[in-house]
Task: structure prediction
Amino acid sequence: MSGLFNLFFVLFASIPAVFCFSTSSLQPSKLIQPHTQLHSTSFNLDFLSSLFAPTNSNNNNSQVQKQQQQLKQQLYQTCQSSYGKCTPTIRSKIEQLVSQLQPLNPTPSPSTSTLLQRKWIVLWTSEKEINFFLEKGISTQIEQTLSDGAVLENWIPFVRGGGFGVTGSINPAAVIDNNDDGGNDTNSSLRTEFKFQSAKLDLGKWGTYNFPPVGEGWFDTVYLDEELRIDLNSRNDILICRGE
Result:
């Protein structure tokens, strides 16, 4: 009986996860605008010494990279210690780090960048339906693969074999105008729209169960580099991933 009980437990646990990416009427993510520095155009004889000094741009780049690495290490440590959990305190700490990394995003147009098109491992998420699988020990790793600029695959491998996955299409968003609802305009270069087309629950010897198309929405990739990706989505959830 225990095997049959576990079958139905996983089956019913998986159904809410199918709908965890459905659309909502939440406000888009707020982007932090970097401050613009104004430089004096006055001329004096000190320019001779400046010819042999390190350029400001090089110094600034070095400082930005150092700050990026420090913040990323703090974020990795927080994700590791909070894996599968999302309390108000944990989320607040994550949000603070994300808000500091956001203006340091090195990729101008994440939604169309080739860096986005790869397999990603979820380090932390606020999505309770996904965290359920981790908290209950059903899974120890959540995977997402974006490929060919058009395909999205989410996969939750189960510890005892099988898994749960959804497949859909993705498309960089067109121009976004939020003035009608009183919100701020969102940079469309950050946003990727998705629409799920199928879902599958693989229970090994117990069989495979297919579900119909299950929803659509969008995510804003507010930070993207060769190893780290941070998304804010249409459900007001946060997704933090490392590239594989």
About this structure: The chain has a mean pLDDT of 80. The beta strands are 119-125, 143-147, 151-157, 163-172, 191-202, 208-211, 215-224, 228-233, 238-243.
